[in-house]
Each structure stands twice: as C-alpha cells, then as structure tokens.
C-alpha cells in the first residue's frame, strides 16, 4: 500500500493527544459517517470542489482562501491557496490531466459565486465539462467536498496547536494534511488515493512530523568560508516535483526548499532554540 512506513510504538490505552483535542474535539452527537459511495467509474470522471475560507489569519503571502478539488473515484485531494475567490480550475485541470492522461468529465460544487459566474460557466462549456450544482441551502449534496475541507482544517489545526506554530502558517499545515491524506488508505478505496491516480505506490520514507526541528544545509555558494554551514529550521511540508523539504528558517521567518536537512523529531522547542544561541 505504501513503502517506507516508519514503525510507531503503541500508546497507552488512556493516552490523549492534546493537539487532537485542541484541534478537532466536538460533541459526539454531531459526528457524521464519511461518504462511502463512489459515483464515478474512473479517475477525473467526477470532481467535487468547495471553497475554504475566508480565514481570519492571512498567510505570509496574503492568502485567506483555499479551494479544494477531490477526485470522486480515488478520493485524491488537491488544494490551491488564494488571496481572493478566483478561478483555479484551469491549473488543476492541466496538472491532473497531464499526470493521468484522462479528462475531467463532471464538476460538482455548491452555488457559490466563484462557481456560477459567467467566465467560469464559459470555461466549463468550452472544455466540455458538465457542471453539477447543489440545490440552494442543501450543502449535503456536496458533502464529500465539505467533509474533506473539515478534515483538512481539523488536521491543520491539530498540527499547529501541537507544535506551537503561528496560525499564519495554516496554508502550509493544510497542504501537508492533503499530502498525508493522499498517501493513506480510507474507508472507500482499497489502495491509497496517490496509487490510484499515479499508478504507483507512494514513498513514505521522507515522512516527517509537522513542525519538526532541524538544521538545513546552506550550499557553499550561499556562504563564506567561516559562515555556519546550516541554519535552524522547522519542517512545514513537501514541494511537488522537487526532492526537498519546505522548511521555516526560524531566524529569518522565510520558507525555504532544502534537500539536505537533519531533523530532530523528538527534541523540544525550548532546548532547540537555546542550543546554539
């Protein structure tokens, strides 16, 4: 199902995850069972989409919205972030159709303005994509997308709270949550969403704890003879199409993509921040 999965020690029966409680605890009678019906015959036959936001906290890039696209057949989720509600279907369509060799046939969404505007309708018509819209005030008809958004936000919230990371990095946490969801089996598909879409097993040997502390290598070209050869960082996620990690430079506050990082997933933040000061 996936290669490189690390062995995880068993937790005591009364173990409570503080981050999970802070991030997604709710009353039991409000829980819902996940949608278990596949309504399509193949990848990209039916795409569910929904907008997440606006978030109260802007990302460093100024984004307050996210839009998700979920493939009905595989349950693979793709997330794009934006400053305003805008069209991102074109990018998703190009990325996924190039990766799979298949064409999007149907798009299901609610009646939000970003999905009902004239330019969007004209684009769908030109591309031969049938638009299935929900009846007003019945979000249940777009339940798969809404539940996926809730799962992504809950996972991201848990990550941020558990690791004590500023909420402005919510997009990084959401993106990493989607990366994880795509690489684990669910109640609908026997294989992982990643394997169904890309026809190969996901590699998990580079799986890291969100917020993990570490040292990122500084290339020779970026430093002088006596400069430090590494910088303190925290793991934020993965970069598509690049063999490297997205890390936060704790001194500059900048996000870097680094290939060589020494992570310390069990080191406390306090010890790490004072270690070389």
From TrEMBL:
Q: Name one GO molecular function term.
A: RNA-directed DNA polymerase activity
Domain Integrase catalytic stretches: 30-201
Matching PROSITE patterns: INTEGRASE
Q: Name one Pfam family in it.
A: SH3_retrovirus
Share an example GO biological-process annotation for this protein.
DNA recombination
Keyword presence, Metal-binding: yes
Keywords on this record? DNA integration, DNA recombination, DNA-directed DNA polymerase, Endonuclease, Hydrolase, Magnesium, Metal-binding, Nuclease, Nucleotidyltransferase, RNA-directed DNA polymerase, Transferase
Tell me the protein's name. Answer: Integrase catalytic domain-containing protein
Q: Which organism is it from?
A: Phytophthora rubi
Lineage per the UniProt record: Eukaryota, Sar, Stramenopiles, Oomycota, Peronosporomycetes
